[in-house]
Amino acid sequence: MTWLVSALVFWLCAWALNVWLAGSRWRRNLAVRIFVPVLFGVTLLVLWEGLVRGLGVSPVILPAPSEVAKVFAASTSTLWEDFNQTVLKGALSGFLIGAVAALVTAVLIDRSRFLTRGLLPIGNFVAALPIVGIAPILVSWFGFDWQSKAAVVVVMVFFPILVNTVQGLHEAGAMQRDLMRTYAAGYWQTLVKLRLPAAMPFLFNGLKIASTLALIGAIVAEYFGSPTRGMGFRISTGVGSLSIGLVWAEIAVAALAGTAFYGLVAWAEKRVTFWHPSQRR
Fold first, then answer.
1. Is this model's pTM higher than 0.90 or not?
2. Per-domain residue ranges for the chain?
3. Rounded CA gap, 144 and 142, in Å?
4. Whether the Cβ atoms of residue 126 and residue 160 lie closer than 8 Å to each other
5. Which of 163, 176, 261, 260 has its CA nearest to residue 203?
6. Cα separation values, 204 from 162, 182, 214, 268, Å
7. Residue 109 burial by CB count (10 A; 0-12/13-18/19+): exposed, middle or buried?
């Protein structure tokens, strides 16, 4: 019980410190804004460690963070191989292909009433399809390597980006479009200089949603067929062989990769849409 009491005391102290920092005059300082969520995460890990050790939970049910860290350190080569297969090959390539395809399709829809009325309803239908239903089909079409995982990711990210981009292209006001016409600007000039910049907040909203869906899609697709590597493959086989520490290490890598991916998109959004009110302090 000593572990449990120590963890609870640490949690209460850290909670009080976070509350004080969140309300202090330094709350807008960059270091404080980084420290607060980091301390919150460390607090959860300490509480997790104390609960597992204090209550004597079996490692098969829930390993302690320290045990996961040991497995992580001992399996770096395996984790890197799985990261390369799932994130860099499957999720990232599918994300880029889906984003480019969605942007091009959004421009075509903007030019065609037929596509606006025909493709978008189909897009909503496809977006509602369960990933566990389409993943086996795409794996049988594209094989067991990373190409089938990229195809699943494309299907998952295409329509969120498409819908947000189409909505963003209509964000420019009628007065702004009339002004471009008075300057004798054609469709493509108006698109590049007015409508696409106005659509950027919507586009990045779709990209941020897709950044999390991409990793989920790649991991789930590996459950339905994969070479002997990849996060989804390792998680499924690890659960079957009761290598729970390795499973949690893979989950930690996936969480870190997803956070970094989302953060990179958010960083690009701040640089591109610095003029938008949402980016102003």
1. no
2. 2-57, 71-279
3. 7
4. no
5. 163
6. 11, 30, 15, 9
7. buried
> One digit per residue, pLDDT tens: the chain, 281 residues?
576 677 677 777 877 777 777 777 766 777 777 777 787 888 888 888 888 887 787 878 888 888 888 888 888 888 898 888 888 888 899 999 999 999 888 888 877 777 767 677 776 777 677 777 777 888 788 877 778 888 888 988 888 888 888 888 887 766 767 676 776 677 777 777 777 888 888 889 889 988 888 888 888 888 877 777 788 888 888 877 778 888 889 888 888 888 888 889 988 888 887 776 666 65
Residues 247, 116: Cα–Cα separation, whole Å:
44
* Paired tokens of 120: 């978008």
What token pair was written down for 86? 């799932």
The CATH number of domain 71-279, selected from 3.10.20.880, 1.10.3720.10, 1.10.275.10, 2.40.50.1000: 1.10.3720.10
Cβ proximity of 18 and 26 under 8 Å? no
Phi-psi region of 184 (alpha: psi -120 to 50; beta: other; left: phi over 0): left
